[in-house]
Amino acid sequence: MSERSEASLADQIDALLPQTQCRKCGYQGCRPYAEAISNGLADIDQCPPGGDQGIQLLADLLKVPAKPLNPAFGVQHPLHVAVIDEAACIGCTKCLPPCPTDAILGASKHMHTVIAALCTGCELCVAPCPVNCISMVASTNTEWTIANADQSRQRHQAKNRRQARAEAEKSERLNRQKQLLAKLNKGKSAV
Fold it and tell me: SS3 for 16?
């Protein structure tokens, strides 16, 4: 299979995934899982948020038989969202980095809150919380739609771009500091 058709297949698979970015499939998000499926490295039964419907969509696309969700990757459950007990939140910010869609608002030493409409229910914010003030509750949204998945994908990609820019800026700043230090050290040794 050519690289072009593999990318196209990965795009098609990614378009069918729920974009929760929960990592329950064993990959770092929906796109890496889609690429693994397209390369024959992962099976179609590893996405608990997609559940039986997602598996059927993948099976139809790939023209393979559908199968039940592999319980090693979790179980399908109703949609839920993170909720922060704001009275218990200490403002540690440990929940912010793992959120794949920037659905949590807050600042250091200030209470945090979840924007429910942006939360994918991935649960990645729960474990880092040192005071256990984050819980998952049933979502008022009873069905995860393609529009939800598209919004989540766009927000996840935007977060990744922002983090890459910040990392590049940090690296550039460190390089400038190293160059300045080298010039200062060179000037001292010339004296």
Answer: helix
- Token digits of residue 182: 């080298």
Give CA–CA dist 161/155, Å, rounded: 10
What is the overall mean pLDDT for the chain? 92
Q: In angstroms, rounded to a whole number, what is the distance separating the alpha carbons of residues 35 and 177?
A: 39
Q: Which residues pair with 135 in a beta bridge?
A: 83
Query: Nearest 10 degrees: CA dihedral of 81, 46, 33, 137?
Result: 0
Strand, helix or coil for residue 143: coil
At what angle are helices 3-16 and 30-38 packed, to 10 degrees? 130
Q: Is the pLDDT of residue 145 over 60?
A: yes
Alpha carbon 59 to chain centroid, angstroms: 24
| Distance (Å) of CA 83 to CA 97, 110, 124, 159 | 16, 16, 12, 21
User: Could you give the C-alpha distances from 127 to 40, 147, 158, 168, in angstroms and in order?
Assistant: 31, 28, 24, 28
- Residue 58 confidence (pLDDT): 98
For residue 5, pLDDT over 70 is answered with: no
pLDDT in tens, 115-133: 999 999 999 999 999 999 9
Tokens representing 190?
A: 């010339």
Confidence band for 64, pLDDT divided at 50, 70 and 90: very high
Give this prediction's pTM: 0.83
Measured on CA atoms in the order 11, 63, 39, 27, is the torsion positive or negative? Answer: positive
